[in-house]
Amino acid sequence: MRTDEPLRLWLNQTIWNTWDRSPLPTETPEPPFDKSSADHPPIRPVVGLHGRQAKGYYDPPHVHDRAQFSYRLEGVAAVRAGGSAILLPPGRGVWIPPGLTHEVSCRGPAAYNALYVTPKADPQPRDLKVIDVTPFLHALVEEFLTFEPAYDEAGREGQIVRLMLGEIDRAPASAYAGPRLPRDPRVRRICDALRIAPADDRDIDAWAQVAGMSRRTFTRAFRAETGMGFTTWRQQLRMTEAAARLEAGQSVKQAAQDLGFTSASSFVTLFQRSFGVSPGRYAATTAQVRGHGR
């Protein structure tokens, strides 16, 4: 048995016995404040921070010399990294390896936890990774954020840090990481058009013609470039846009109509499947965040 296994089992038992599986809770101050990794030098292999971002926040393309793991407590962020457009609603996190260019934007106010991890810290993922943050991992991060910057690597605090990194490393990729953007210019042209007009309901044959490809070539190229079929990709794109619209204050009914859904029930079903909550509950939660951000 690994040396940290008893601690992991005890924490897991304690947390899951008291967790009600509601959205990740947090006590956050009202004024927005963002923090930079430069403000947190690597005194130890892992440093962490909690911050808030204001409505309309945008961090242009940049890189870090350390890995970054962040997840939203409230609000929604859109991250572009490694050719992917990643949506981060509450409870979904992204691991960005060092040296990978990425950018972040928020349509509405958001709260987040972030870790910066030096290459010598172990274990850690080596590639871009999107995961669903479990209550256990969230509790570990929250505990870590109470540590002094020069935490005791050899004692309990070091155990928790290694356990925290292990949970990130072993976590399976999220089933809903957002639509990946293609590199092939023919396929990218179609994806860009749908990003501008996600309600466009033209079928595969019509889009293949726009791309100047046969249906068979188009479907093969699309799957090779994005890792999924065209219909699934378009659904994920619409859900990404739906979350952003709800977070910005648009009504559920209007969002469904604007995104091309002919029935509210189909919209609600797909949203629930994608995010684990109904669009109404999601909208109500983000409305509370907007109130804090004023």
UniProtKB/TrEMBL annotation:
Identification of the protein by name: AraC family transcriptional regulator
UniProt lineage: Bacteria, Pseudomonadati, Pseudomonadota, Alphaproteobacteria, Caulobacterales
GO molecular function: DNA-binding transcription factor activity; sequence-specific DNA binding
Biased amino acid composition, Basic and acidic residues: 32-42
Gene3D superfamilies reported for this sequence: Homeodomain-like, Jelly Rolls
Residues covered by the HTH araC/xylS-type domain: 188-285
Domain of life: Bacteria
PROSITE patterns for this protein: HTH_ARAC_FAMILY_1 (PS00041), HTH_ARAC_FAMILY_2 (PS01124)
